[in-house]
Amino acid sequence: MRITNTMMTDSAIRYMNESKERLVEYQEMVSSGKAFQKMSDDPSRAAAAMGLRSSLNTNEAYTNTAENVSDWMSANETAFSSIVDLMTRARNLVLQGQSDTLSAKERTALGTELASIVHNAVDVVNSSVNGRFLFGGYQTGKVPFTMDPAGTAVTYNGDNGVMTQEIGPGQSILINFPGNSTFAEMFNAMIKARDDLLNNNSANLETRLSELASATATVTTIRTTNSTRLNQVTTGLDSLEKAKIEIKSLLSKKEDANLAEAISYLSNQESVYQTVLEVSQRAISSMNLFDVIG
User: Fold this and answer.
1) Can you give the pTM of this predicted structure?
2) Coil, helix or strand for 62?
3) 20 vs 193: CA distance, rounded Å
4) Which residues contact 102 (CB under 8 A, 6 or more apart)?
5) Mean pLDDT value across residues 48-63
6) How far is CA 133 from CA 38, 84, 153, 221, 261, in A?
7) pLDDT (tens digit per residue) in 5-34
8) What's the 3-state SS for 261-290?
């Protein structure tokens, strides 16, 4: 078989294009830092990278949820802390009111302060996070507690719904405490103690102390439960962060190019391409007019 100039030229052009394509690939690899630009470049590694990215997205979704839950439970803790402080102050006022040396006017003053504490407690249990009320059960858009204009009673407007959030694969956690079962005992005890102080009814104050102690124990127990759950969320967030780091490391191994190696390949390919250009130029320049017109 006779090798014509046209055949040599066609081959030279083909080699030149193939060499240029490889050069472009290495240039993209070096500039992007990625081992491949599309799935067809390396199907197995690309598929593995897609799976890892899906895991990373799932991890981030769980992390976002867990962070929101952490914010909610931290707000719970802040509210419980304030409530315990208010209840402690209320008990101290009742203790003062038991003194036989106090006058009716002085007990009334203690009752007035306790009335203020009740109002403060209503404000605390109506706490919210991002516009959602903490202690209304499912009714997160409604103010959980209201006090009648006369200040004689506190009404619960929520329900007993308990909300659950998934903070990790197969890991769900209860995040809220309905206000009625959490704070009703407290308000009843505070209001009775307030009224007895205002009415100089010292004979009932021992009973009020017992009621306040029981209500404090109820809130403290619920607070402890919240703290335990918050620790679970914190631990879950730590695990999610470690998993995220591991997934990113695996993804980097699948997607990222070995830059030192890629730069070496690029340098070699640039030399190859220059050589192909020179050889192709000589092949094409050797063609005569008859070769061109067929």
Assistant:
1) 0.75
2) helix
3) 89
4) 96, 110, 202
5) 88
6) 48, 19, 20, 21, 57
7) 555 555 555 655 655 555 455 555 555 556
8) HHHHHHHHHHHHHHHHHHHHHHHHHCCCHH
